[in-house]
């Protein structure tokens, strides 16, 4: 049973065909995804800048809770940027496999 399921899953192949799409639509979708990734990366970078600013302010004002929240925000922002980078990298890799 398990071997039959594994063999059936191993036979799956995906071959996207973009030839039926109009050129303007394909170009527009490409620009849309590039712009969305750029906006998300910009938001992540802004979060990193604001978190570092919060760290500096918390250190100067001797407010431990500001520094702690800024460290957490820095981790979230840097993690979001890293996930976005890896997602774009894997998407480009997967697109290269289907060519």
Helix and strand pattern: HHH
**Gyration radius, rounded:** 22 Å
**Termini gap:** 34 Å
Helix content: over 70%
Major beta sheet summary: none
Give the CA-based shape.
elongated
- Which runs of at least 5 residues are low in confidence (pLDDT < 50)? none
Total strand segments = 0
Count up the helices: 3
Kindly report the average pLDDT value: 84
- Structural class of the helices, strands and pairings? mainly alpha
Strand residue percentage: under 5%
Keywords:
3 helices; elongated
Report what the structure shows.
The protein has three helices and no strands. By secondary structure, the protein is mainly alpha-helical.
Show the helix and strand layout.
Layout (H helix, E strand, L loop, with lengths): L1 H9 L12 H39 L2 H34 L2
Provide a short characterization of the protein structure:
The chain is 83% helix and 0% strand. The protein is mainly α and 99 residues long.
């Amino acid at each position: 049973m398990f071997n039959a399921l594994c063999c059936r899953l191993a036979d799956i192949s995906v071959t996207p065909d973009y030839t039926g799409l109009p050129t303007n639509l394909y170009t527009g979708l490409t620009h849309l995804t590039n712009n969305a990734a750029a906006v998300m990366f910009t938001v992540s970078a802004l979060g990193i800048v604001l978190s570092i600013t919060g760290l500096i302010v918390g250190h100067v004002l001797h407010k431990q809770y500001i520094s702690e929240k800024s460290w957490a925000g820095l981790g979230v922002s840097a993690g979001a940027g890293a996930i976005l980078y890896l997602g774009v990298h894997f998407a480009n890799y997967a697109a290269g496999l289907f060519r």
